[in-house]
Design a protein that fits this description.
Elements (H helix, E strand, L loop, with lengths): L1 H25 L1 E8 L12 H22 L17 H20 L6 H19 L9 E4 L17 E3 L2 H13 L3 E9 L4 E5 L1 H5 L3 H31 L1
Amino acid sequence: MFKSNKTSDAQIKKQQNTFGKILDDLTTLEINTIIKKGMSATEPPERIEETVKGLLDRYKKRIDLIFYNNTDFNVPEGICIQDDFSIKTFHKDIITIKEMLDEEGKHGNRLDETDYIRILRMLAFCDFVWARSDQTDDDIKIDFPENTTLFEVSLKDISKLKINICMRDRVKINRYYDLGDERVVMQTRFGIDGDVVTRVEEGFSNKPKKLVIEIHDEQTNLSVSYWKSLIEIAKGIIVRD
């Protein structure tokens, strides 16, 4: 009887944590509008392993392109982003690159702001995986190979990996994949407390395109309606329980 109660308490606590995370995710809504040259119109990879590899490949190519187009900046010594790399080694390289760019910025030599934001986005992704790869009960797991984490594992043989990941983290990684290394020109964030913040990239604001603004407004309205329905569903579940 005592054992059954303990199990029940554990289940209740787990449910509370799950609902807490869901509500936490619902406290903000973010709509991003991206402009890019050409679109492949292909769907994201079905396997999360391929999604992670594809995102890191895009990051790597963007780093090469940034320094190819900005010859005033030299890749810091020791940076070696090759085909066989892990998020851990990439994280270390991105930190080194950011430190170099910040130091150069103090002397008036600044990278294009759009490219600098891309660097920060790459760093944020690595920080996210790092924080979720401590091998605790709720963290991202690597079922194969064992005794490693997503942060540390080599991504060269991605097809051999087996990542055990919760839906919440999968959605987060898919969001990073959708944003990728693209240029975000408009972003609107809604807070459950009523705060609404719209950011417009400076370069775009100087020459705004009416069609892009209209698309962003339409997607914002659709997202808000969907967001409200999700909150009502979550509220109904909590009230019923």
